[in-house]
Amino acid sequence: MKNYNISDYITAEELKNFRKKINLTQKEFAELIGVSKPTIERWETSDKGITGPVVLLIDLLSEHDEWLRQGKYLNRSIR
């Protein structure tokens, strides 16, 4: 079993860079992680650390970023 060293927060820049790395719009990324587009907009412009379950989710998704970039997970209605 893999142990994860999870940060307490991620920065707006880290979140935005990850979203761009997997080549998703704010809307597509919001749908992927189950939040609204305005939430993504707010997070990406925040000057405070982003906390909560999204930190773990982004860390886990980062483990599979190649798969995400290929879009194999996407329900084609998103794109």
Secondary structure: elements and pairs:
Layout lengths: L11 H10 L4 H8 L3 H9 L7 H10 L2 H6 L9
Helix pairs in contact: 2-3
Features:
79 residues, mainly alpha
State the share of residues found in helices, binned by percent.
40-55%
SSE order in H/E notation? HHHHH
Global morphology: globular
Please report the distance between the alpha carbons of the first and last residues: 34 Å
Number of strands: 0
Strand content: under 5%
Walk me through the structure.
With 79 residues, this protein is mainly alpha-helical. The protein has helices at residues 12-21, 26-33, 37-45, 53-62, 65-70. The chain has 5 helices and no strands. Helix 2 crosses helix 3 (37-45). The protein is globular, with a radius of gyration of 12 Å. It starts with 11 loop residues before the first helix and ends in a 9-residue tail after the last helix.
Short summary:
The relative contact order is 0.22. This protein is an all-alpha fold. It is built from five helices and no strands.
